[in-house]
Amino acid sequence: MATKKKSGTKTFASKVAPATGKLGVMVVGLGAVATTMIAGVEAVRRGLAKPIGSLTQMGTIRLGKRTDGKAPLIKDFVPLADLNDIVFTGWDIFEDNVYEAAAHAEVLKPQILEKLKPYLETIKPMPAVFDRYYVKRLNGTHVKKGKNKRDLAEQVIADIRAFKKTVDRVVMIWAGSTEIFMEPAAVHESLAAFERGLEKSDIAIAPSQIYAYAALKEGVPFANGAPNLTVDLPVMIELAKKNSAPICGKDFKTGQTFMKTVLAPAFKARMLGVNGWFSTNILGNRDGEVLDEPQSFKTKEESKLGSLEYIFQPDIYPDLYKDIYHKIRINYYPPRGDEKEAWDNIDIFGWLGYPMQLKVNFLCRDSILAAPIALDLVLFLDLAKRTPDLKSLGIQEWLSFYLKSPQTAPGLYPEHDLFIQSMKLKNTLRHIMGQDLITHLGLEYYD
Ligand SMILES: NC(=O)c1ccc[n+]([C@@H]2O[C@H](COP(=O)([O-])OP(=O)(O)OC[C@H]3O[C@@H](n4cnc5c(N)ncnc54)[C@H](O)[C@@H]3O)[C@@H](O)[C@H]2O)c1
Q1: Chain centroid to CA 389
Q2: What residues contact 263, with CB distance under 8 A and at least 6 apart?
Q3: Residue nearest to atom 17 of ligand 1 (CA)
């Protein structure tokens, strides 16, 4: 379907289907991140606050030459769903409505929550697919019962179908707790094997995989905000392609890893060596409590460790990066709640091997950083689903920008460098809208 968008004086032709009607957003896990996103969207819709941190809402995109002076807002350039057209629903293992869950999370101030209360109270979670084996620190009471995992998947499919009747398009996002560390198994190799595994309630199939399977079966795009093994599996890639349901990597890139993927490319660009990177965190929210359990921590640790190895390419630069000691710690410390504090000590070396140090102390707010990322992922996955060039690719590598563990085609190393990721994202938007890509070559200005 062709659509035309006007920005400034230029009209862009594109094959992207317009974002007509309502976008239904199904959120798995109505905890701190999810409620901060939902309350935030409502606050923005009512003009009570600005969507700071959201590229889809505040970002611009340069088109053409620097001298052309064209930089429309991204949301005016590509046909994204309008915030007023978003309808939220979700699942949780506790019965609290979104107001109660947001109050419990203590991220947003009571003054703003009270204003939004009548709306937030209307969003009540559906019973979840949950098993304590996969998140040991939680004990859910609001859970689905079924004779096997296939039965549970069918119940989620029924939830999706019921919701689809009330909206025009649907996207699903996992903002649930981090599950235990798991590795791909035979059951994940193909759709047939996975469906047999569902029937037998195979232990290698975690609840997050049941939601993802249900979404992708229904042609619904799926984002994973946590580090658990969910769509990074052959069965999910197969389903995503088959049913034109876009997927992307996992684990919101918010605080410490966000900073790492800014600083590491800077050291590498200047050929400065690194021999140690010690990262520690204190946080006291429910996520911190779940991550205090060693098997959930291992899932997070693996996701956080990956970025440096890929950015530094020690095989290519052994003199600079072959012996990095990279250590990550997360400490559950209740007094801090959602206001996480992260410290990084980075041991670097320069000319003739002389050592130096850099210390980073990021006093951040976990869910304040994650909420706009969750929103952008939802909006961009919905865009991908409406884009002929993207919808059947399965993995949307251009969304790596938002994730600690970007997903790529098998055999391809992921790009972790935030600035490469940002360029990739913006060039993808230019590409799908039929605009010239920007290479930053710039020789034309000196003709
Ligand atoms: N906040 C950040 O900066 C950030 C960054 C990266 C990743 N994450 C990840 O995002 C996820 C959400 O973080 P949070 O701070 O909102 O945590 P949270 O503990 O506040 O919320 C998670 C919610 O998921 C629910 N839940 C758990 N298992 C479920 C299931 N099977 N089905 C439905 N609901 C389920 C819990 O009851 C809880 O309400 C975590 O996995 C976290 O590691 C957060």
Answers
A1: 21
A2: 346, 358, 360
A3: 287
304 Cβ below 6 A of ligand 1: no
Token match 């950083």: residue?
369
Distances (CA, A) of 102 to 49, 86, 120, 234, 407: 17, 19, 9, 35, 30
CA of 399 to the centre of ligand 1 (A): 20
252-292, pLDDT tens digit by residue?
A: 999 899 999 999 999 999 999 999 999 999 988 887 888 78
Does residue 105 line the site of ligand 1, with CB under 6 A?
yes
The number of residues making up the chain comes to: 447
CA dihedral sign, ordered 142, 146, 149, 154 = negative
Q: Dihedral sign, CA of 366, 94, 178, 197?
A: negative
Task: For 230-241, give the DSSP string.
Answer: SSSSHHHHHHHH
Q: Dump strand ranges (E) for 350-418.
A: 355-363, 403-405
Pick the more confident residue, 423 or 440.
423
- To test the ligand 1 pocket, which listed residue (33, 155, 299) has its Cβ within 8 A of the most ligand atoms? 33
Q: Give per-residue pLDDT as tens, 329-373.
A: 889 999 988 888 999 999 999 999 999 999 999 999 999 999 999
Q: Which amino acid is at 315?
A: D
Helices 32-45/98-105 angle, 10° precision: 110
Beta bridge partners of 277: 326, 346
